[in-house]
Amino acid sequence: MSRFLFPIFVLLAACRTVGAGGEAKPDHASTASDKATAAAPKVKLGTDPGGAGKGTPLVARPGNELGAFAGGCFWGTEDLFRQVPGVVATAVGYTGGKTTDPTYTDVCTHTTGHAEAVLVEFDPKKVTYDALLGIFFKHHDPTTMNRQGPDVGDQYRSEVFTFSDDQAKVARTALAREQAQRTKPVVTRVSPIRAFYKAEEYHQQYDEKSGTHSCPIGLPSGT
């Protein structure tokens, strides 16, 4: 955890609860200062990577590629990737499990097999898939099984969902590179993407909408 570039108190703010209306809420209340300092994308980004829907086929725009990453709370993971030059669109959702068209409440039961994941559409001429993997590994703990900070359960597992054999090869190489830098075993999975179910609208771009950083994610300087 000492390699992370965010203060420890942020970890304590990553928990989520479900309110009366079924919407997930961060356990901390945002302040005016939070909203003033929360980062926003430098350019307006899309919210429909690959035409994401409720398990619909995913097709990147001409010249672009898709990637999908699960690294704990998808609010913060999406916030992370929306700051990366070359990323053109993101959405959060559920994938990797057996339940068709799951809800957030379903996934929270830890019986669906789905992970909270971020679907990323990117321009490979501006940012490579390997670079996205490097950012992914740097900004979560890939050595904790089914857990990131206080968020516990299989939906918070570390997993890379690949769209081709080439992506799988690059992802496994990146995983091996990460393992070589650590003493603890890296538990990140590399799996072919299954149906991706876009999450409820209130989850989409949550940190931008709320003006907070709800999960333990941050960008290194110069990224």
Kindly describe this structure.
By secondary structure, the protein is of the alpha+beta class. It has a single domain, classed as 2-Layer Sandwich (Peptide Methionine Sulfoxide Reductase, Chain A), CATH 3.30.1060. The protein has helices at 8-11, 32-37, 74-81, 104-108, 129-138, 165-180, 206-210; strands spanning 16-18, 24-26, 65-71, 87-95, 115-122, 147-148, 151-152, 158-162, 189-192, 197-198. Helix 5 runs parallel beside helix 6. The two termini are 20 Å apart. The model is unreliable at 1-15, 17-41 and 217-223 (pLDDT under 50).
Mean pLDDT: 83
Order of helices and strands: HEEHEHEHEHEEEHEEH
Per the CATH scheme, the topology name is Peptide Methionine Sulfoxide Reductase, Chain A
Strand content: 15-25%
Uncertain regions spanning at least 5 consecutive residues:
1-15, 17-41, 217-223
What is the oligomeric state here? single chain
Question: What is the tally of helical segments?
Answer: 7
- How far apart are the first and last residues' alpha carbons, in Å? 20 Å
CATH architectural name = 2-Layer Sandwich
Fraction of helical residues: 10-25%
Query: Major sheet: order of its strands?
Result: 9-8-3-5-4-10
Largest sheet: 6 strands, mixed
Number of β-strand runs: 10
Structurally, how many domains make up the residues? 1
Structural class: alpha+beta
CATH superfamily: Peptide methionine sulphoxide reductase MsrA
Sum up the overall morphology in one term.
globular
Task: Identify the CATH class.
Answer: Alpha Beta
Q: Rounded to an integer, what's the Rg over CA atoms?
A: 16 Å
